[in-house]
Specification:
mainly alpha, 0% strand
Length: 149
Amino acid sequence: MPHVNISKQFSAPYEAFLAFDKSAEEAGEAAGLSATLVELIKIRVSQLNGCGFCLRMHTRDAIQKGETADRLAVLPAWWESQYFTSEEQAALTLAEQVTRIGDEHAAAPPAIDVEQALSAQQVAAVTWLAVAINGWNRIAIASHYPVAP
């Protein structure tokens, strides 16, 4: 993949994406999602996409918002732990489905009943948040955003 920072080449789409991301964040807030859950969604999607830039940023944000090291440590295997509420499990399931949408059509249905754990408004908010962070992951990875200590 070429080493071109796409946001610097065309700033208008980048600015529009910033506005979209802000709207997705506002949807999460309006749906009653906690600030830590919003960050967990961003981290989990970034783990699946392998986006080091977004992982570093949102892990720091999650810690600042009160997330614990234990929960962050088990997030890649959240379904094997008892650290996450049913709402969080449903949101993570949905975020993973949106991220893996191409594979999900052929996959078995998830063991977690998302619609039982989340309201329609929360389902919509989590979906928009997942769409937004997937976009950011692609922008950061395609642009080779640096991830240095």
